[in-house]
Amino acid sequence: VLHLCSKIKKSMSQSPSTAAHDASSFQDTSEDCAICLCPLEDDDENEVIALGCGHRWHLACIKQQLEHGKPSHAKRLLFNGCQCAKCGSFCDHPKLEHMTRPTDDLREKVDELIVEQLRVDAPAGWRRNGSDRTALMDQGRRKYAFFLCSNCNEPYFGGTVECADQQEGELAPNDQLCVACSPQPQIVCQNPLQHRGHMTWKCRYCCRPSTFLCYGSVHFCDACHERNSHRVQQQQRIGRNSSNAPPLLEPIPCPGDSCTFPKPAGKTKHNNGTTSDCEQVYHCACCQSSDSQRSAANVQEPGSANLLVNTSGERGLALWQQLNRRSSWKVEQSAIPSGENVSTNFVSSYQWCVMAQRVDLQSLLRNPSLARVEASAKYMGRTDCPSVFRLEVIILDRSQRIIQRQSTPTLDAPPDYWERARLIVEPLENMSEIVLVVHGKDSRFWQGDFGSKVSECSIRILGGEEELNRQFLNRPQQSNGGGPQVGFPVGATATTIGEENRRLPERRQPPVAAEANRLYLDAILPLIFFLVLFWLAS
């Protein structure tokens, strides 16, 4: 993980969240618009609106401000152009929604990146809830610099504000790429976006591994970062426009054969200098392991057989409850099987596909509250259509009340490569049932089934042989088709789709035997119908 370039300044401006007024008790008595300085007279030519904070502006003036303050690829992301100039709260009005919605979405994504960085920089503080997290978020918004990728228009972390504001001129297009769109990580990493915290980059100005990220996309080692800091300090003393300003940082040439660091393919030296083609990823820790090491890393923790049924679509969609009527998971033959004896997988579409399967722990275990449960699934995407995936578990008590829910972040599905998402539910008082919920869709809204793929869905009770024998009423054995051989209630539940309210329906648990009978009837009835038609025709 890269170090940061600066410490938080002591004099920090008030964040928009603390500066906003309560519109219900505040009235703006200003007579003139603070942008154009003309009277706030509401007429056909100059419509006046009051923002959510209560401050009044000419609609045309505030629209002009929002247009001028749109995020730019050439500079770090700044959101003050979409804030009320009087109090700093973000502009909020129905007539501005078409202009503010894209920026609001962008701010949410930046906040997610801030959380990711804070988990690395301040893990102890982030583990504490409440005011500590709020204060850390405010510091992160003032300290971290984010940029907009010129290829995918997604925000990415680019160092600190203090360092980014020292950038001379506008960023070149090649320096406006996030790690997923930059060509360098693609050479050594199978999934750059998910593995971005595990890559070792080369210093742009020498051959040593980097420890700093500055200006959005420039990697420095300790020594070159120190040299650049002296250069910047000298420039600040002299003045940027002075004829005596220091030159750009001088690169250190690669010694060639005596250099022990990995060189680009087909080259005998590293390219060290000021341009983006001098960037290089030496290796990715997640992708560098050998097949044997990868197999060892994927060895499952000791536990029971899989308690789910139809884990990879080998029986179609049987026993899985589809929770989005507009878009359902489907089953396809696996072009890249997720494992031995697995030939099918689930595949999603252009809208969120959500399905769930429930396991009644109360009917299987002597005391479900003492169980340590693992929920997991393998997921994969396509090379031609990016997609996303999310795994969720919901814990219910005997009264069907939700007592806990866990979820992975929304993960980018790796193209043509299976990865496993995993959640652990620690022993929980009153735990009676567990519901596995699988979410997936593509990111380009392509008509058809081009979304994320899912296979080998699993719920297992973790523990050694003796412990499992004590916990289970009747220890299930793994069957060929997945799931336990003993019968137990399996059914469905409900979960969120997008931002809809969460709730669970009334308990519905058709047993496995009833589901098997239904599958038998589905197969035999068309045959009977065909025989009757044949008899009538003859």
Helix content: 10-25%
User: What separation lies between the terminal Cα atoms?
Assistant: 77 Å
Mean pLDDT: 79
Poorly predicted parts = 1-21, 289-297, 479-520
- How many helix segments? 11
Structural class: alpha+beta
Main β-sheet description: 7 strands, antiparallel
Notes on the protein architecture:
The chain is α+β, with helices and mostly antiparallel strands and 538 residues long. Helix content is 23%, strand content 19%. Helix 3 (97-121) packs across helix 5.
Quick overview:
The chain is an alpha+beta fold and 538 residues long. It is built from 11 helices and 20 strands.
What is the fold's blueprint, element by element?
Layout: H1 16-19, E1 48-50, E2 56-58, H2 59-68, H3 97-121, H4 123-127, H5 131-143, E3 144-148, E4 155-160, H6 161-164, H7 183-188, E5 199-201, E6 212-214, E7 218-220, H8 222-238, E8 281-284, H9 291-297, E9 321-322, E10 330-333, E11 344-347, E12 353-360, E13 373-380, E14 387-396, E15 402-407, E16 411-412, E17 419-425, E18 433-442, E19 453-461, H10 465-471, E20 490-491, H11 512-537
Antiparallel strand pairs: 1-2, 3-4, 5-8, 6-7, 9-12, 10-11, 11-19, 12-18, 12-20, 13-17, 13-19, 14-15, 14-16, 14-18
Helix pairs in contact: 3-5
State the main characteristics.
single chain; about 20% strand; five-stranded antiparallel sheet; disordered N terminus; seven-stranded antiparallel sheet; about 550 residues; alpha+beta
